[in-house]
Amino acid sequence: MVTYDCDVLVIGGGIVGLATAYALSRTAPGTRITVLEKEPGPARHQTGRNSGVIHSGIYYRPGSLKAKFAVRGAAEMIKFCAEYDIPHEVTGKLIVATEREELPRLHALVQRGRENGIPVRELGPAQITEHEPEVRGLAAIHVGSTGICDYGAVAARLAEASGAEIRYGAAGAAVHIDRRPDRGVAVRTADGAIVRGRVLVNCAGLHCDEVARRTGDDPGMRIVPFRGEYFDLARPELVRGLVYPVPDPAFPFLGVHLTRGVGGGVHVGPNAVPALAREGYSWSVVRPRELAGTLGWPGSWHIARRHWRYGAGELRRSASKAAFTAAVRRLLPAVRPDDLIPSPAGVRAQAVLRDGTLVDDFLIREGARTVHVLNAPSPAATASLPIGREVARRALAALQGAVS
Fold it and tell me: What is the pTM of this model?
C-alpha cells in the first residue's frame, strides 16, 4: 500500500504553479497540495523579473489560449489585486507606429483587438502628444484595459491563499523523479527527502522540458532561453504611462518599450538576446551543459538561420548602449544615453519545436498522472488565474482517474 504525502505535487513556485495550487484549493477543497520550489522564496525567475504589465490581450490570435486567457485574466488580475490590496493601476497604453511600413501592422492590431473584445482607440500625432508629450509617432492606438501591478506580491499572496504546503530551497529542489502510472510520482529533493504524490503538475518554467523528460514523457520541444535586458529611466518624468512600438508578428517579442511601474519608475526594454544558461541573467553566466543542450537542439539552428538579421540587431543593442538608446529614441526622442541606468535582466523560457518554430501559444500537455505546462512566457503572469484553473482542471481529472 503506497502512502502519499499529497494528492497533487506541483513543481515550480512561480505565478503559474502557485495559481494552479490556488485553483486546486478552491475547485476541490480538501485536496492535499504540495509545491516544490528550489529557490528560497516564490517568483524568483520569470514572474519576478518582468515589466509588471497586466496585458490586455490585443496581440494574440483570436481563439488562441493566449487571447482567451489574457483578456479574461487581465480583468481577474485587477480584481485579485484590489481584493488583496496589492499595488496596481489600470493605466492604458499606447502602441505607436514611427515608420510608414508599420502602419498596416498597426491597423491589423486594431482589428485584432476588436475581434478579441478589447477597447481600442486610434490616435493621430496630435493625440499621441496629448497622452505622452515627449513621444513622437505617425499614428498610435490607445488600449484602455492595460494595467500594471506587482507580480511578486501577487505570487506571494497566491502562495498564502492556496493553503498548500510549500517547500523552498533544498527541500523544494527536485533532483530525481520516479513516475509510475500505477503508483503515482515520487520526487527526491536535494535534502534527501522523498515526496510522493498521486499526480504531478510541472510548472517548472525555464526547466519544464527537463522535468517532463525526467518523468518519462517526451515534451516534443525544448526551452531555448532568451535574456531580456532592461534599463531604468533616470528621468521618469519623460513618460506618463506605457508606450510600446508596433511589434513584428514574426517574433514573440514586443520590442523595446517604456513602462511606468507601480513604484513610479520607468522600465525601458527589453532587448532580447540568447542566454548562455537557463538562468543566464548576464553574459558572464555560462553553464556548459545547458548551453550544449540548446546548441544540440535542431530548432536552435533553424531559428538562427531564419532570423539572423533580427538577432544581429539585438546583439548590437546588447553590446552598445548607443545602439540601444537609438532604438528607444524612435519613440522617445528626448532620451540620452546617460538617462539609461542598467536594471536587472529577465530570461524568457521560450519553447521551440524541432523545426525551429517558436511556440506562439500556451502549451499544456498531459501524460500518465502528469500535467506539463511547457510554454507560458508573457502574458502568463496576466493570465495566471485562468491558466491555473485550466491546469487544475486537468490535474483533478488525472487525480480522479488515479483513485477510481
Answer: 0.95
Whats the size of the chain, residue-wise? 404
Residue 111 structural domain: 93-144
Q: Is there a contact between 397 and 80 (Cβ–Cβ < 8 Å)? A: no
Q: Among 80, 113, 144, which residue terminates a domain? A: 144
Using alpha carbons only, give the angle 182, 166, 276 rounded to the nearest 5 degrees: 90
Residues 18 and 132 in one domain: no
Domain for residue 56, yes or no?
no
- Same domain for 236 and 169: no
DSSP state of 13: -
SS3 call for 166: strand
d(CA 184, CA 199): 6
Could you give the 3-state DSSP secondary structure of residue 144? coil
Q: Could you report how far apart the first and last alpha carbons of the chain are, in Å?
A: 15
Report the C-alpha gap between 192 and 267 in whole angstroms.
41
Strand arrangement, sheet containing 120-123: 120-123, 139-143, 93-97, 242-245, 257-260, 266-274, 222-233, 340-352
Strand locations in 217-332 (E) = 222-233, 242-245, 257-260, 266-274
pLDDT tens digits, 212-254: 999 999 999 999 999 999 999 999 999 999 999 998 876 767 7
In a domain, 69, yes or no: no
